[in-house]
């Protein structure tokens, strides 16, 4: 397809020939409450474990996870709009639930790779001023080192467990 070119002085603007209407919705409303998304029924499987597809998360479960975890993040951990929450997860079935819940709680998601060193992760936590650390169960030891290095107050970790996805 050819682009539409618009010249403004020394500036050239390239536009696609077809435009797409972008609804004025926040991300979560767009994903879960958008009337134009007729494929998203309550029993639609959104995420499945590659090794065991019977372990999956449906739209209804995802919505429940979002509401519960966002509420927990705000009420039990005191996270407020504009705070940062640090997330370190391996390929866990609840990764999308965690990311979207942090957004639903009004916070910003700050991420680290699980292969990063404790010093690097502690530096990232310090730079983002994260108030909470969420990790998968296999990273508890790494997350513990990071919390100690950054001297985050105790009780600021949530461990995401596979047993909690139903």
TrEMBL record:
Q: Which GO terms describe its biological process?
A: secondary metabolic process
Which Pfam family is one of those matched by this entry?
A: AMP-binding
Stretches of the chain forming a coiled coil according to its record: none
Q: Does the keyword Ligase apply?
A: yes
Q: Where is the AMP-dependent synthetase/ligase domain?
A: 48-146
One GO molecular function term?
A: CoA-ligase activity
Q: Does the keyword Ligase apply?
A: yes
Taxonomically, the superkingdom here is Eukaryota
Query: Which keywords does the record carry?
Result: Ligase
Looking up InterPro entries in the UniProt record yields: AMP-dep_synth/lig_dom
Q: Which family does it belong to?
A: Belongs to the ATP-dependent AMP-binding enzyme family.
What name goes with this protein?
A: Putative acyl-coenzyme A synthetase like protein
Q: Which organism is it from?
A: Verticillium longisporum (Verticillium dahliae var. longisporum)
Q: What is the lineage of its organism?
A: Eukaryota, Fungi, Dikarya, Ascomycota, Pezizomycotina
